[in-house]
Amino acid sequence: MEAAVGAVSSLLGKVLTKLSEDLVAAYVDSLELGHNSQQIKTKLLQTQGLLQPAEGRDVSNVITLKALLEELSKKADEAEDLLDELHYFKIQDQLDGTNYAAPDLGDGLRGHARHGRHAVRHTIGNCISCFCCSRTQDDGSAPATVANSAHQHATNSATASADDGGHVDKLHFNRVAMSSKIKSVIDDMHSLCDPVSDLLSKIPSSSTAVTLKRPHIGSTIIQDTLHGRRDIFEKIVNDITSGTHHGQTISVLPIVGPGGIGKTTFTQHLYNDSRTEEHFTVMVWVCVSTDFDVLKLTQQIHNCIPATESETAIETTNLDRLQKSIAQRLKSKRFLVVLDDIWKCNSDDEWKTLLDPFTKGEAKGSMILVTTRFPKIAGMMKTVDPVELQGLESNDFFTFFEACIFGEHKPRDYEDELDGIAREIASKLKGSPLAAKTVGQLLKKNLSQEHWNEVLHNREWRNQKSDNDIIPSLKISYDYLPFYMKKCFSYCALFPEDYRFSNSEINRFCIAIGIIDSSYPRDKNYMEGLVENGFLMKGVYEKSPFDEYYVMHDLMHELSRSVSAQECLNISDLDFRAEAIPQSIRHISITIENRYDEKFREEMGKLKGRIDTVNLRTLMVFREYEERTTEILKDTFKETNGLRVLFTAVESLESLPESFSKLIHLQYLQIRSPYETEMALPSALSRFYHLKFLDLSRWYGSSNLPKDISRLVNLRDLLAKKELHSNVPEVGKMKYLHELKEFHVKKESVGFDLRELGELRELGGTLSIHNLENVATKEEASGAKLMLKMDLKELTLVWDGELPSDIDAHILDALQPHSNLTTLGIINHGGTTYPSWLCPEILVKNLETLHLHGVSWGALPPFGQLPYLRELSLKSISGVVQIGPDYGGVTGKCLMQLKNVVFHDLSELVEWVVEPNCHMFPSLESIDCSIDVCHLTRNFLSKVFSSFPTLAELEIRFLSENSEDDEERVIQFPSSSSLQTLSFWMSNGLVLLPAEDGGGIQDITSLQSLKIMYCNNLFSRWPMGKAGGAPMTNPFPASLRKLHIEGESGMRSMALLSNLTSLTHLRLIGCENLMVDGFNPLMTVNLKELEVRNNLFQTKSVAADLLSEVARTKSMHAGSLQLRKLEVDSISAVFVAPICSHLSATLHELQFHDDKRAKGFTEEQEHALQLLTSLQTLGFNHCKVLQSLPEGLHHLSSLKELEVSSCPELPWLPEQGFPTSLQVLRLWFGSAEQKQQAEKFKKTYPSLRVDCAF
Q1: Which residue spans within 465-563 are E strands per DSSP?
Q2: Is residue 313 packed enough to be buried (19+ CB in 10 Å), middle (13-18) or exposed (0-12)?
Q3: Rounded to whole angstroms, how far apart are CA atoms 237 and 245?
Q4: Which end of the chain is more exposed for a tag (fewer CB within 10 A), N or C?
Q5: What is the pLDDT of residues 1186-1235, one digit of tens each?
Q6: What is the DSSP annotation of 249-308?
Q7: In Å, how far are 227, 465, 971, 983 from 1045, measured between CA atoms?
Q8: 8 A C-beta contact, residue 382 and residue 254
Q9: pLDDT tens, residue by residue, 945-962
Q10: Could you tell me which CATH class the domain 482-564 is placed in?
Q11: Is 945 within 8 Å of 920 (Cβ atoms)?
Q12: 966-972, long-range: CB within 8 Å, 24+ apart, which pairs?
């Protein structure tokens, strides 16, 4: 009932917003309703004012109110659609300079005549709509849920398809139909508001806030055995009794996790462990629950602590006396206090007040353990990092699961009949102990396969109602959320399990369906509230650590589906049952697997007749499907035309929904396409005037946009590649656009001058302006109004051609950005001086990144003035002789935040002037130095290490031998260096001293990653030894985890690497003289990725020799390797039983490159291949004589991707076909026969993605 109250309140808010728009209000005022728009708004506001406080009340017993709210909700929905449609035609009038939807303000004969014309059109049109259509539909023909939206009385224009890439016909406004509908629905809403308000006003205020009751649990252990989590348990006990926490006066350790994860049980075992009991003199357990009352909690704790001998009995409610008494009782004692199940704490001050008496003790090692569901509370209370409890590991969980089902009496025939079903059920419970108890009780009722299979397929645990069952337990947390946060969480059910949300993505969705006001601050993060309350978890991408994502625990996803079941439907199983779906569904997502199923067709047909598909608000299709499944979806939703959100993938424009061109309410559209397609975007895009978010990030078709795309005047986010951004003509019409990644100034095309940027008042994010040589005057440049764009964070100014230098100088002056800018790039500017806003004083002082490339200013701007600068990149700049106080204003006391420096092609740079005994740039972590024909002094790199002690990454490229100076550029690394990543690229001018001469890098124990590519002289003075001999010492530190050596003909012995037993990634490419003598097998023990191969023109295979050594090693047993990825140049070296048995459990990807010998596969090799049971990706690349693939390929049940590239002698792919698990087949640069087969495979395996390039 609370959801119904909140939903109606939200809908009324949307109607009020639309009525507040001037033009809409004027139209409504002209309808002769008997009350004007202001009176209507007042009535709605009064009703909404009563609804909002009722969102938290228990009004479920007011049956009449429920019926009235349902009716009001329908009318509000219909009103929203009508007013939305009216606004659509207002926008069309503004774009076309017409007045079809203008208020009918005429009087006398002219007004009556206009009305008469509309009435005649209405009669001729057979009362069909608010805008003309080629297909009529009676108002009563759709399922009777919500009164058919604007599109029931509004359809498409009568002529040609809008999706053929050609002209898009406009939709035509029907004034009589629109006026009639608006009058009717507003009258209905007006008449409903009074009885609803009357009933709401009679609900007593005492019913606010449904009471949340939590069981009080003590310290007594109920579950005798602690299943799993032994490692973290032992660590905490050790930290408490003798480790990290032992030396602190008091430590607060939160134990946090979702409901049912076992926090209290875990803490009970900690509390009752004999080592804990021996360590603490006083132990107190208090169950806090939802009542965080400082006085009450202080009293409870006080009552649990024995009084001192000298203390008189105390019975008081005075907080000060209680706290002093606690402090006195604990003064010389080591104590443990457990505060279990904390649900709220209103402020830091409240927590500090409760904590205060425990900070007065003299003994060391006292502890407070806090258990809570909420990361926000854990963050407030912690003094040490919280323990985040996740689900139990699979083996531990299954043992516990069995105990929940059978207790101590497992049936003898259980493993034969039920074990497999039990394991499948267990895999869906994601390690939750409470879920194990819930489902265990269900299974315990009937130990039969039929019952257990029913529990498995129907997921019956979702429907258990006891407070001790999993979903009700989790729902208690949900009930505690504010209403808007509940709505955000409930709609997460539409996304697939384990989906990684971005904050902006969920914000876009919530704006589109009206949960969040469209005027929300662009940096507002609504996801954080769900993280703080334990509903989402935050992570960062491994390859992009600055990009955060949010993910939902599987059981939280179950909860989300449960609480949104009346509104949202996620079709994730082909065998779903339509009759179980509520008729009130308004939002649908499709996440089923990609295979055809006739039963799915049948159920989708039933669904179409059961729910109101016409007025769906959301349709999200997350995968690409084969043709028959696509046709099922297209047929099911062919009349859907009220969508606000649409996610879809298209093989061709014909696979778009039939109603696509009529989706005038659409606010969020995502279209995806296959790779390698020239398909054009549908031309109907340009008439979705309400569209706020267009996601083309996975559109791989044509970069040409519909010619009228700038008619999307409400568009805020265009998520697309740069080419699409740069192709928007007259982009200035999109005044609300938040980001335009790239803009090209074009003389020959209309709508591409800088004045277009000047109209984009809300532009932020990243902007790159190209072809600035096409800007002729300073006035034209000023038209961009960059100084007014306070939300713009990154700006790149690019000259792609030449202009007279004096013109370039004036233009750059006029392109001054706002001072909020954080990243600036200036590329190929032809002027001779920097702009006035960079010198003599820099006016963009918030810069964190500065890129200057290809400029000829003669001197550098004083970037030493930038206090926040983190990255400095100087490339292809002439005239820079030194960097120091006179060049760039760099002194020892500036650029304190600088972390990364890039110097490329500074051909005249001689020296970096460093002040004596000065450690410059204390935050510097990375230097990338690429300097061709360099005149650097020989001690330049030595200065780098002495001046930048925090340097963690150094990359040196293209440091050439100097023909004018025979001195070698010796590089010496101090053992105190903090380097973690070191790279040398094509730098013949560098020499690394051997260890006996004070050089080498073997003592840099911080070094984790080393890359050496084509540096022929780097080890010229290192005692490499002769082929077959070992060097005296190893050049690299044993700490190395990643090593990449390429094109080093001087590398002759694997003994050089014999100490590298910690390696996880090793790449040896094109080291043609490398011998495997001295190879240490222990090098391979920790390897996750190994690539050993020669280049295209070498015949010897180092990989074959290396793998042979591994195969002969007796100290290594089968399965001892941890390799996940292997790339080599010898097929025969891998496909032998000893190697494949080593790799069977872990190898996921196997790539062969440039094998010049293998033509086919022997029976022994076929057998060895079958040992690779974990293989997911297999590739054959540049294998010029290979004539066949393994015939047993179809038996590799885990294989997902197969790639064949540049194998011209390979005429046919396997006769036995592919394994059913295969998802992607890539064929690159193959034969004509392969091309024919590729076309055949696309038809034979419709669910297989076939990527080709011939």
Answers
A1: 537-541, 544-551
A2: exposed
A3: 10
A4: C
A5: 998 998 888 898 899 999 998 888 877 676 778 888 888 888 877 777 77
A6: SEEEEEEE--TTSSHHHHHHHHHH-HHHHHH-SEEEEEEEET---HHHHHHHHHHHSPPP
A7: 47, 62, 18, 10
A8: yes
A9: 667 777 888 888 766 655
A10: mainly alpha
A11: no
A12: 967/938, 968/938, 968/1017, 969/936, 969/938, 969/940, 969/941, 970/938, 970/999, 971/941, 971/942, 971/999, 972/941, 972/942, 972/945, 972/998, 972/999
* Length reported for the chain: 1254
Nearest alpha carbon to residue 77 among 4, 161, 177 = 4
- Report the alpha-carbon distance of residue 1118 to residue 1171 in Å, rounded: 11
CA distances from 206 to 58, 210, 707, 734 (A): 10, 10, 60, 50
- Closest alpha carbon to 104 in 178, 161, 190: 178
Using CA atoms, how far apart are residues 898 and 951, in angstroms rounded to an integer?
11
Q: How confident is the model at residue 519 (pLDDT cuts 50, 70, 90)?
A: low
Q: Which two tokens stand for residue 287?
A: 């169950």
Residue corresponding to tokens 């951004």: 725
Q: Which residues contact 1040 (CB under 8 A, 6 or more apart)?
A: 1007, 1008, 1009, 1010, 1060, 1062, 1063
Q: Could you give phi then psi for residue 288, rounded to 5 degrees? A: -85, -50
Q: How far is CA 516 from CA 75, 511, 531, 796, 936, in A?
A: 21, 5, 18, 33, 58
Token pair recorded at residue 1018 = 């780097």
Write the DSSP assignment of 413-481 as a string of letters: THHHHTHHHHHHHHHHTTT-HHHHHHHHHHHHT--SHHHHHHHHHHTGGGG--STTSHHHHHHHHHHTS
For residue 330, pLDDT beyond 70? yes
Q: What is 382-400 written as a DSSP string?
A: -SSPPEE--PPPHHHHHHH
> Residue written as tokens 């394994």?
1219
Model confidence at 749: pLDDT above 70: yes
Cα angle value 340/344/347 (rounded, 5°): 120
Q: Out of 3.40.50.1390, 3.40.50.1240, 3.80.10.10, 3.20.20.70, select the CATH number for domain 1121-1254.
A: 3.80.10.10
- Under 8 Å between Cβ of 1212 and 1190: no
| Separation of alpha carbons 684 and 323, rounded Å | 71
The reported pTM is 0.77
Tell me the C-alpha distance between 866 and 848, whole Å.
8
Distances (CA, A) of 950 to 920, 945, 1022: 10, 9, 28
- Confirm or reject CATH 3.40.50.300 for domain 230-388, answering yes or no: yes
Is the pLDDT confidence value at 323 over 70? yes
**1212-1224 b/e with 16+ CB inside 10 Å = b?**
ebeeeebbeebee
SS3 assignment, position 647: strand
Cα angle 229, 233, 237 (rounded to 5 degrees) comes to: 175
* Separation in Å, CA 676 to CA 30, 654, 1225, 1226: 54, 18, 14, 12
User: Among 431, 380, 397, which residue's Cα sits nearest to residue 256?
Assistant: 380
Secondary structure (DSSP) of 96-141: HT--TTS-----HHHHHHHHHHHHHHHHHTTT--SB--SS---TTS
- Chain centroid to CA 667: 21
**First-last CA distance in the chain:** 61
Structure-derived torsion over alpha carbons of residues 150, 152, 157, 163, reported in degrees to the nearest 10: 90
For the CA atoms of the chain, what is the radius of gyration?
36
Calculate the average pLDDT of the chain: 81
Q: Where are the domains of the chain?
A: 2-130+173-205, 230-388, 394-476, 482-564, 895-1014, 1121-1254
What would the two tokens of residue 497 be? 């399990």
Please state, in angstroms and rounded to a whole number, the distance separating the CA atoms of residues 688 and 681. 13
Query: What's the rounded Cα separation, in Å, for the pair 306 and 830?
Result: 83
Written as six digits, the tokens of 652 are: 């061709």
Residues with Cβ within 8 Å of residue 556, at least 6 apart in sequence: 258, 474, 535, 536
